[in-house]
Write a structure and sequence with these properties.
37% of the residues lie in helices and 22% in strands. The chain has 369 residues and is of the alpha/beta class. The radius of gyration is 20 Å and the shape is globular. The model has no long low-confidence stretch (mean pLDDT 96).
Length: 369
Amino acid sequence: MAPSVSDNQCEVVLVGCGAPLRGMGWYHAVQLLGGECPSAVLCYVVEPWFMGAGASGPGGPEFAEFQKKTEEDFGVEFYKALEELPPVPEGKKRMALVSGRTADNPKLLGQAIAAGCSTIYLEKPGAPTVAELQAMKQEADDAGVTVLMGYNKNVTKYVKKSREFAAAHPGSHVTFVSNNTYENTPESLGECFERNAEGMLKNMAIHELALLVSFYDVTVENIESVEADADFSSMQTLKGPSGKEWTDFDKIKFTVTTKTGKKVSVQADRCGGSVTYAVVTDESGNELFKHTMPDEEDEANVSVLEAKYPGAMPYFFSQDPDYVTVKEKVANQCANGVEAEGIATIDTGIETLRVAEYLKPLLAEQLGN
């Protein structure tokens, strides 16, 4: 029997757990099992890879150990496919948290709807292409199912404080900076390019594009111009573990100007470190304000989490409170009908992907690729 769910809670089906310490799904599970989202109870984990072909490969034994402990300690039920889930109990709501490979999402959304999920939380970018995400929206609309997106940076402190500062200082300019901790080697970046085959703009920098869509009126139709910073930016063609070559940005910086007169910049670096931030500058480019993630307040929490989960991906810890906020808001909407204020909808997700697809060839051309 799966864990019981009270009247003000929903069942959660985690789809795509991934390997312990590595997979985003695993960290979602850790937070849910820790009781950090009061409106949500993790009842089921669906893991097609590690309960199938990946069981004996890298990460497989660690997943099996996590499964055994989670079944024993919490009563969570593990399945290889969504079709195997039992029916939703009478009077309860079920939410799917889809955190697998982006390419699998169109199929998984349909399966989650068939499994009785009334709310679906999709990790970014939702689908590999705009057309697929639009089809998924139609499928969900036809079934009366709500789809919300895991764009956690929409609810972060550093974004909120930077936007507030810029609003109080006319003529100022905001740059959103996203960093990650890959080693600057062909092997490390090649593996990254292959695993995130949708590319930098649809993967790492998609969070920043969602901020532009959510807060700066950025749509494909409203973009006046985009200008790449050629001095900062870099695009490489590298071999992945499979031997196949992949071409992607390892770092990119650009400024978007809208037809409605807004201007905002994005900078993303796969090898830039573990600190993400927003900076506000004046018309001469002088820094007026900067807020980091994690900030000093968050650092204490990061230290605790590092000690608790040694070897886990560093970005889990710096964004820990924001992951909780998004999950809880989505779960509260599912269980109690409370509007998930500030959470990106699938419509935001579609426009964000449209912007990513529009910008990539423009930026690549400016960089001579």
